[in-house]
Amino acid sequence: MKGIDISNLNETVNIASVKSAGYxxxxxxxxxxxxxxxxxxxxxxxxxKSNGLIAGAxxxxxxxxxxxxxxxxxxxxxxxPSNVDFVVLDFEQQCHGDMTDACLAFxxxxxSIAPALIYCNPNYINLYLNFRITKYPLWIAHYGVSSPxxxxxxxxxxxxxxxxxxxxxxxxxxxxxxxxxxxxxxxNENSAAVQxxxxxxxxxxxxxxxxxxxxxxxxxxxxxxxxxxxENFQNLMGxxxxxxxxxxxxxxxxxxxxxxxxxxxxxxxxxxxxxxxxRVGTGIxxxxxxxxxxxxxxxxxxxxxxxxxxxxxxxxxGKETWRCMFEx
Length: 328
Known about the structure:
The structure is a single chain. This protein is an alpha/beta fold. It contains 11 helices and 11 strands. It folds into 3 domains: 2-187, TIM Barrel (Alpha-Beta Barrel), CATH 3.20.20; 196-257, Orthogonal Bundle (Muramoyl-pentapeptide Carboxypeptidase, domain 1); 259-328, Muramoyl-pentapeptide Carboxypeptidase, domain 1 (Orthogonal Bundle). The protein is 38% helix and 18% strand. The strands form 2 sheets. The protein has an 8-stranded mixed beta barrel, surrounded by 4 helices. Strands 10-11 form a two-stranded antiparallel ribbon.
């Protein structure tokens, strides 16, 4: 997913034009230090949300120690819109020594608003941060390379790859970004941030591999391949294909995993029926009619012939037919 980050230097931004150009997230500056409030920040966030894009908000740090970091965090928290999807510490100020404690103090405070990230470049990571900072995802700034260097983390949520971009709706140069393997921030139905746990993503990836042969690496990272597989599954289930594994998506998965008897002699369950229709290669409409019954019978006959099973060729997806649909 493509994104940009903007500040008062960009003045008024036409968010609708940015969206039309194919950008999916915008990160707006809100504050700097303990006194500066970006006069465009709150409106930029509001416009980003109203256009249906993922909205981030960032603070440009000026602190040199933990106490000042806490002051700046509280200042940012007091001025940041509460409906942002993620928040960022922009750590690129002149400093000295290990700054991990100060950065963690800042991030721990602002993470009460929304999931938090740290923005940094490879040189600053090596000079001023230790491995404890990897508690929070990374927005890496690294220009002029085919892929970013990511010390300590090894992966990233966002990569800022240029500071000289040209984007419709933005006057002058603008920073260009792309989401990375750890970009798990989505808008839910209430426009609040959703950051799925690695455990739930792992379960999701395993289910998608089993149900629709998604061929995902089960790594707990909700990257582009996982999002695309979720969208594919949602399309099959007749759901809004937004790539977000919300309640409806999991309801569909759980209904299929319940192995409910389905067929001509049983009540029909739409999600289970849709999956059965996909599995036997017939039209997918969630209605178990005569066409679906015929295809199920063909499947049962073929499994008996090819694998030596003894399924009843009755067009009913019972326990043994369910087993075979996943096994073969």
